Amino acid sequence: MSESAAPSSPSYPSRVLGLLSGGAAGDALGYTVEFSSLAQIRAEHGDGGLTHPLQVPTIRAGGTIPVSDDTQMTLFVLDGLLDWIEWANEGSMADPSACVWLSCLRWYRTQTGTLPEGAPEPPTRWLEEHPEMHVRRAPGNACLSGLSSRDMGLPHQPQNPESKGCGTVMRSAPYGMVPGLEDTMVVSLARRGAVLTHGHPAAWTSAAAFGLMISRLMAGHTVDASVTAALEWLDTVPDDGGTAAAVRAAVALAGSVGADRPDGSDGSASTGALPAALGEGWVAEEALAIAVYAVLVTGGAVDPVAMDPEAEALVPVDFRAALHFRSALHLAVNHGGDSDSTGSLAGQLLGAHYGMTIFPDAAVPAWIGERDIVAEAARRWVAATS
């Protein structure tokens, strides 16, 4: 397992926008094939699968493709934390977990048109002013049912106690985006955010582990070091629901590909076929493991099939970031599972790591339908946290 060198350290605003737009890109691309098998994806897009947005007919026709509920919920969690930070900046105290719950209720209102009976009515904020945020994009059942109660889910009394769908981990990146937040606080916020809708241990430990990875990446650590830090924390959790085993399997599989097939010719990294042992990503720990595998196994490549060392040395470092991103998304979305969630998570990891150099022109891709909302969310976050 190897990891391409990062360019000169990205700025904080670049990491914020890179994370949000990288996640949105992976989400939108994966959303186009989310409910297709790998055989169906290859039948439609060729043996290499979905490798470029221009393969999507709407984009070829000059249109855009939308993000799914994954990016919608991520933005609402981000805005909940932003609400808490704005209160703090004004010298007032607020409960960050309550702010996230109220923001998730705002999301619930965009999806259903109403709030749960007896639930507090949060004031409207800027996200809800965008019609795109009111369109239902296949929201998870547990996310909807968990937020349909008047009561806020708590660690000792979670909503949907047996649910461990990926609806927690796919919205947990914002917990790692708060500058200077201690690991214990990242974990606490991720856990309290997860139990709003999902109560199984794997749901919250996957969310917390991903938040810790994002926190490390935002601080300039490597991908390898960030994954290792999350695993070290998972090893301290008595009942993690299998999250540590899933992530450790992803790391081992990525390492075996790098060691045994340095040219990527094993039929997985080069063709877009994920190892079956990682699952399909419908549950939290599998979605996290797939994203980690996709990012790690493509880390030393500047193409889905790695160049020889002499050729790779001629490729500009910034360009490698964009190629690493493309290669990782290729793996993360080409499978018969939850492609938008795994694509989003992989995109967020690399966006936090490389910043906006994941895109050749360092701009939010024009083919993402909600690109202006993503850019505005990043702008507001940076303004409040810088």
TrEMBL record:
Keyword check for Transmembrane helix: no
Protein name as catalogued: ADP-ribosylglycohydrolase
InterPro entries found in the cross-reference section: ADP-ribosylglycohydrolase, Ribosyl_crysJ1, Ribosyl_crysJ1_sf
Keywords annotated in UniProt: Hydrolase
Similarity comment: family membership: Belongs to the ADP-ribosylglycohydrolase family.
Cited Pfam families: ADP_ribosyl_GH (PF03747)
Highest rank taxon of the organism: Bacteria
